[in-house]
Design goal:
The structure is a single chain. It is built from 7 helices and 10 strands. The chain is an alpha/beta fold. The protein has an 8-stranded parallel β-sheet with strand order 7-6-5-4-3-2-1-8. It has a two-stranded antiparallel sheet with strand order 9-10. A hairpin with a 2-residue loop joins strand 9 and strand 10. The radius of gyration is 16 Å and the shape is globular.
Length: 230
């Protein structure tokens, strides 16, 4: 099956997504360090927003070197159409309040569809598994703080202890508050085979730091060699 879906990489290597890329410099850093996925954000309130026309050359630069993820938040059909036409993503990442029916309706627009689920407790994960049977992967992110203007990218982690005793028979991507200093612990605690970072590799909101990108990918790769937590 396509790498964007299930199963995960049989080599056991942790997959890495660098999200919110807006410049060639940051994109090249992610590609050069071996990122598996590069994310483009199509949500205007985000400091990482990039318009479809501006995203097209970035997608072309990445194509064939990493999988292209288009992040949307409750986007309309017309908005999805414009994004797909401009960047031809491998994955649509739905980060809003999309229903299960909406998720299913968009599966033909890209090779895979991921659905973000805000997590504060283990029950949020089990509810997400039940709510989105058609999704290729769940992206487990921290619940946004009260008054937040965007559902993700808030440099906020959730308690990875919620994974203890949780049997996840479906693939997932771990997100929320990750950086080079904590990604190994997050992978060990959650058992994640894929991780997603945005604010944790930035100098300022929306301004990616190539050195931090490289450090994050190194740390995530190294974590795969560590023995699993008991």
């Amino acid at each position: 099956m396509d790498i964007a879906g299930w199963p995960c990489d049989p080599s056991g290597m942790v997959e890495v997504k660098i999200c919110g890329l807006r410049s060639e410099e940051a994109l090249d850093a992610a590609l050069g360090a071996g990122a598996d996925y590069v994310g483009l954000v199509f949500f205007p309130p985000s400091p990482r927003y990039v318009a479809p026309a501006a995203a097209a050359p970035l997608a072309d630069r990445a194509r064939g070197r990493a999988r292209i993820v288009a992040l949307t938040v409750d986007a309309t059909d017309a908005e999805i159409e414009a994004i797909v036409a401009a960047v031809r993503p491998d994955v649509l990442q739905l980060h809003g309040r999309e229903s299960a029916a909406r998720v299913a309706s968009l599966r033909h627009r890209a090779g895979a569809v991921w659905k973000a689920v805000p997590v504060a407790a283990a029950a949020d994960i089990t509810a997400g598994l039940a709510a989105y049977p058609a999704v290729d992967r769940l992206l487990l992110d921290a619940q946004p703080p009260k008054g937040a203007t965007r559902p993700g990218g808030n440099a906020r982690a959730f308690d990875w202890g919620v994974f203890a005793g949780l049997d996840l028979a479906r693939p997932f991507v771990l997100s929320g508050g990750l950086d080079a200093a904590n990604v190994a612990a997050a992978i060990q605690a959650s058992g994640a085979a894929a991780v997603d970072v945005s604010s944790g590799v930035e100098r300022a909101p929306g301004d990616k730091d190539p050195a931090l990108i490289r450090a994050f990918i190194r740390a995530a790769r190294a974590a795969a060699a560590l023995p699993a937590e008991t």
